[in-house]
Write a structure and sequence with these properties.
heterodimer; A: 192 residues; alpha+beta; 5-stranded antiparallel beta sheet; 53% helix; B: 657 residues; mainly beta; Methylamine Dehydrogenase, Chain H; 2 domains; 6-stranded mixed beta sheet
């Protein structure tokens, strides 16, 4: 039975690997002219969408109201997230191998804290894009904010905007859940 | 006295009533439409936002184009420019598509487009390409069904009036061409009344390779009959093509009388697999013949013309077993092969009956050498040895036949203006329904293939008269859609068409939808004058030729201010649309350009030629309402006198920050 926490933590690491295959988050914009929606995807190391032109199309839409161009090169987080995730993969495997109680706690706690910091960072970027507007923009709307929601649905002018996790986002949540479970199991087994 | 008066008055009144009744009986009364089926509206109603079940490709006849309809709604989806310049799309006006209209006669910006034909695999429509013939300056075009644009046009030499075309073989190994007007062979200055001596009729086989590229594989030299229509065999008759002919009298004037004398004309049955063998054995003559192959490339977004100089010609005298003539009453028009490949219907347009030949009978007649005679090396098979059946007095003026998937045939009758349904094998007439008016071709989706989709039938009429609101002397031709899923044909819909649709083709929408391109990928653009980003835009002068490398993206041109152009310069605006979003084309037009606009699809580059003839500052702008800032999508080009020193410069306004 003592193998169980190790197994669960290994599964948590496997769930983490999803970020290298699928997007973590998606922002989907619907408008009358976009019946299929404009789907922008946030990956661990890049921005993309359901078509190669998505980012350009979002930037074209944004320029009417003077929002900044989204340039993946100017977002340092896209370069940072891969090493951070790799750290969690390695640390997670080490935890499973050495099977120390503190390791389980630290791994899970750090992962959750990283998520929360990540979400806050995401909010800051969205705030920046939504509020830093070119004063020469063709269209001005007094007091309007174009900040998308961090999570959920929001109506911005003619767009209905959804901000929700993509596959890897759900996998991250599962990974954190498995981390908690592994820590709990380890706690129980070490007590017994 | 008083009684007499009453009697006389009564008699007069009675007499008047009788006369009135008699007159009323012979007063002309317009025959009414057949009662519309009460659920017809439901059957053709395609709710907003929903799709039609079939694509219909209708030839434009003298418009030179192909129009695409949704069926059963009859909604016009697109007009594809093919043989005619189309200012709406810049087709044949922009530098990229001009080469498609090159011929050995030079640039020919119009033709008479007759018979669309979908490519086939195993005798079934496969949705890769649509072929269509140009009748006047003999040509065949291929339309790519991923882009719905003309991809290739090939010229057919040694022909006049390419009517019996393109009619694919069952795996699109070949499309065919014929000559409806006998012409001197080789073309030369001779007396017209030397017709019988100097004129010939050439049939052509155009090889189609896996990419769809066409080239003439071989031609077959025949007597100068008028080769009218064709269909290739399928199933058991795969390997053969059947061409109808009229004017077997070989007359050259007043054909309406002189070419209508013979009781029987011929269907020419060509064994093209045998022809391949003869070509492989070198039994052909390589004859000088100038013809163009014009191909459009989706990566360079440009067409190129290639002049070919010779063709291989097979002659029946040298190639026994290549061609047989099947006597067929009388001046047969359409020739249609049933889905099994067994029956060959010769629609004898001046005949009272409809003649059906049997492929099996034909093979045994050939084997037993049941020949009536031989004309120019071509055996004429005995009529009663090849005929498989006759539909007796089905109507007046049969022109064309299509098929459903239950062994029924549907024939159009031009003179009696109706479609008649009859049974293959028993030859009995099952049903008839009027058309409005004087129907030519008919179309059942897949109706000339191995696998018809026998749900709808479209009648393509030649005369419109009172069907729609009057629009002056000229009316668009009418088409009717019928439900043929039951025992009785039912009229569902009547709709106007573009030009004069001759033939049409239909295909299940599901075979095409997923292949339809939404954008051209910018990274695949190989146009020699592309600008794949605003950083690549520039203006380059080379003598008096100026190349403008321009881009469009919502909602500006780069550059949008150009100076240093001079009167008499030859300016080429090469405009690349940087958009990568579905259905976001940009247009480009400049004042005084003596051609047309450009309409540039996302990822595409197109070129407009402009030769400024006066000095001044001239606006250019986007012609396709592209965005909320479309009206602002404009720019200026300054034209200086020819001897001026205005420096060449260009710019795009940068927002002040």
């Amino acid at each position: 039975m003592s193998k169980l926490p190790r197994l669960v933590n290994t599964l948590a690491v496997v769930a983490l690997l999803a970020v290298f295959l699928w997007p973590i988050w998606q922002i989907v914009l619907y408008a009358p002219q976009y019946p299929d929606g404009v789907k922008m995807y946030i990956y661990v190391d890049k921005l993309g969408g359901d078509s190669p032109g998505t980012l350009q199309n979002v930037n074209i839409l944004n320029h009417y109201v003077g929002m900044k161009k989204i340039e993946p090169d100017s977002i340092p987080e896209l370069k940072l997230m891969t090493p951070i995730l790799l750290f969690f993969v390695v640390f997670g495997l080490i935890t499973a191998i050495f099977d120390k109680k503190w390791m389980y706690y630290v791994w899970t706690l750090l992962l959750i804290v990283t998520f929360l910091v990540g979400l806050y960072d995401f909010y800051l970027w969205e705030y920046d894009y939504g509020h830093t507007l070119d004063p020469n923009a063709p269209m001005k709307f007094d007091g309007a904010s174009f900040q998308p929601p961090v999570f959920g649905k929001k109506v911005i002018l003619n767009f209905v905007v959804y901000s929700i996790p993509h596959i890897a986002g759900y996998c991250l949540a599962i990974s954190a859940g498995l981390g908690i479970l592994a820590s709990f199991l380890k706690y129980k087994f070490s007590k017994a | 006295m008083k009684r007499n008066k009453i009697l006389i008055t009564s008699l007069v009144i009675l007499g008047l009533v009788a006369i009135f009744k008699f007159v009323a009986c012979v007063t002309p009364e317009k025959p009414g439409d057949s009662a519309l089926n009460s659920d017809a509206a439901n059957k053709v109603y395609v709710a907003p936002g929903e799709y039609d079940e079939f694509y219909g490709f209708f030839s434009g006849g003298f418009s030179g184009q192909v129009s695409v309809y949704g069926l059963p709604s009859g909604r016009l989806l697109k007009v594809i420019p093919v043989f005619s310049q189309d200012a709406e799309k810049g087709y044949g006006y922009n530098e990229e598509t001009k080469p498609l209209l090159n011929t050995s006669f030079g640039f020919v910006p119009w033709d008479d487009a007759h018979h669309p034909e979908l490519s086939q695999t195993n005798g079934e429509t496969d949705g890769r390409w649509l072929f269509i013939n140009g009748n006047n300056t003999p040509r065949i075009a291929r339309i790519d069904l991923t882009t719905f644009e003309t991809a290739e046009i090939i010229e057919i030499p040694n022909s006049g009036g390419n009517h019996s075309s393109p009619f694919t073989t069952q795996n699109t190994e070949y499309v065919v061409a014929g000559t409806r007007f006998g012409v001197p062979y080789p073309q030369k200055d001779v007396a017209i009344d030397s017709y019988a001596e100097n004129f010939k009729g050439m049939l052509s086989y155009i090889k189609v390779d896996e990419k769809g590229h066409m080239d003439i594989a071989f031609q077959i030299l025949l007597p100068a009959f008028d080769y009218d229509l064709a269909h290739s065999g399928k199933g058991k008759s795969d390997g053969w093509t059947f061409f109808t002919s009229y004017n077997t009298e070989q007359k050259h004037d007043l054909l309406e009388v002189n070419a209508s004398q013979n009781d029987k004309d011929f269907i020419a049955a060509v064994n093209w697999k045998k022809a391949e063998e003869y070509v492989a054995q070198g039994k052909f003559k390589e004859i000088p013949a100038n013809y163009y192959i014009n191909r459009y490339d989706d990566d360079t977004h440009t067409a190129t013309s290639n002049l070919k100089k010779t063709v291989k010609v097979l002659t029946p005298e040298d190639c026994p077993g290549l061609v047989y003539f099947l006597p067929t009453p009388k001046s047969p028009h359409g020739v249609d092969v049933d889905p099994s490949g067994e029956y060959i219907i010769g629609n004898g347009k001046l005949s009272a009956d409809l003649t059906v030949h049997s492929f099996t009978n034909m093979l045994s007649a050939i084997e037993n050498q049941e020949y009536e005679t031989t004309i120019a090396g071509v055996p004429v098979l005995k009529y009663d040895k090849v005929v498989g059946g006759v539909v007796v007095k089905p109507g007046l003026g049969p022109l064309h036949t299509e098929f459903d998937n239950e062994g029924n045939a549907y024939t159009t009758f031009f003179i009696s203006s109706e479609v008649v349904k009859w049974k293959l094998g028993t030859w009995e007439v099952l049903d008839r329904i009027p058309t409005y008016y004087s129907v030519g071709h008919l179309m059942i989706p897949g109706g000339d293939s191995h696998k018809p989709d026998g749900k709808y039938l479209v009648a393509l009429n030649k005369i419109t008269k009172d069907r729609y609101l009057p629009t002056g002397p000229e009316m668009n031709h009418s088409a009717q859609l019928y439900d043929i899923s039951g025992d009785k044909m039912k009229l569902l819909l009547d709709f106007p068409t573009v030009g004069e649709p001759h033939y049409a083709q239909g295909i299940a929408a599901s075979k095409l939808i997923s292949n339809s391109k939404k954008i051209f990928k910018l990274e695949d653009n190989q146009h020699p004058y592309r600008a794949l980003g605003e950083k690549e835009t520039k203006v380059v002068r080379d003598g008096n030729i100026v190349h403008v490398y321009m881009t469009t993206i919502r909602s500006h041109f780069a550059p949008d201010n150009i100076e240093g152009i001079k009167v008499g310069d030859k300016v080429y605006f090469h405009v690349t649309n940087l958009e990568q979003d579905f259905d976001v084309p940009h247009g480009f037009a400049v004042q005084g350009a003596r051609n047309a606009e450009l309409l540039i699809m996302p990822g595409q580059t197109e070129t407009l030629f402009w030769m400024p003839e006066r000095e001044g500052v001239f606006p250019f702008y986007c012609t396709d309402f592209c965005s909320a800032l479309h009206q602002e999508m404009q720019g200026y080009v300054r034209v200086s006198p020819a001897n001026a020193n205005t420096p060449l410069k260009w710019s795009t306004g940068e927002p002040e920050s």
